[in-house]
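Continuing the batch. This is chain 6 of the set; chains 1 through 5 are on the previous pages. Same settings as before, nothing changed between runs. Recording input and output for traceability.
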Amino acid sequence: MRLLVVKAAMTVNGGASRDLLRNLPAISKKFQVQFLCLNLMQEQRNIIESLGIEIISPETHWEVGGGLWNEITAGQERSALSAWKSINQIQEVIDWADFIHLTGGNGSMEFIRLVPENKQMHLHFLEAKPGIHEDVNHLKPDGTGAWRPLILHLLQTFQRKRIEKTFELFVKNKNWIVSANSNFSASNLERIYNIQGGVLYPSVDISEFPRCPNPGEIDAFNKIKPGNKEDYVVTIGRISRFKGTYEVIDHVKGSGLDIVVIGGGSTNEKISLEDYGRKNKINIKILSGLSAEEMSAVMRNATAIVGLAHGEAFGLTPIEAMALGVPPIFVREGGFCETIIDGENGRLINRGAYEEWTAALIQARDPKNREKWAKSGIKRIDELGLTPENHSTKLYEKIRNI
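Output for chain 6:
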């Protein structure tokens, strides 16, 4: 069976991109695969081509647009549609496939407008477009700007209707199905779009995260110099209110640990975050564009991997931490609650429970706790079946049953 795997934006290299690359080898064993995208990092291209998978993308890579005008006019969506249409022989590529597997994210949903109604398609729904159906993504990273959501929701009326009409196509078409990436995400899918979809969990490949670092990882750690071993915590994600970047500082400042932020941001956002860290006597190191090996090196040597995202759909970071044997300490919200069992393989703590966060970070430095949580983390990954093989098998079954 011929499967066209589609995701618009890969260069952000967030959890969705990492998960898709992780699952492609197993998927390619069950299908004849072509990969279609609007942008791609060279490292990602090398991985995909090493699998013998043909890559189709526009000559000029699409860039994810932002800003107020894009929000008002659905500029990002319209530019993505233009980019899809610019690909040579795009319709022939679609016709080649027996099935389409589309992963959500910036620009992906516009691809649907090119797909014939009789073409069988599976959408892996990650989360609703940020800021369309909730407020937090309209706030500034430090939480200010409480006036923005009300005004922006009004200005986004055109964009919101455009997105909702796209999802309505899945309700009307029996050839198109949707799976969410967690039970939490599935509940949002039904609440917002009135679609009852199944769940297709992301995965983690244990072989990517050996318990002992290889020489390349050791060199990467020494080159990056994120801090002294176990003297810092890591949080992953673009500097934003959604990811709770500033809130990480608020919840970690009582521990005496520094913070490494793996994620992008504008120059002003980075400067402001570093200033806020200094005010709270915390050294902030911001890293972006890391390879998988570099990311593992930084994560492995941390006291803990922490996260205070607001309504994270699933969150790959906790299971990647478990695979590395590093304690995951996350807010008791969203998809984090599906992978972490508090006190067994990490900690789940309420937002604002500052003393409990400080106590948990002390626990994370105890070698006995680290060893216990590491073993339980691998067990939890097995219990949930979070492997590329299981992911590809479930995808195969879902597609066959359309």
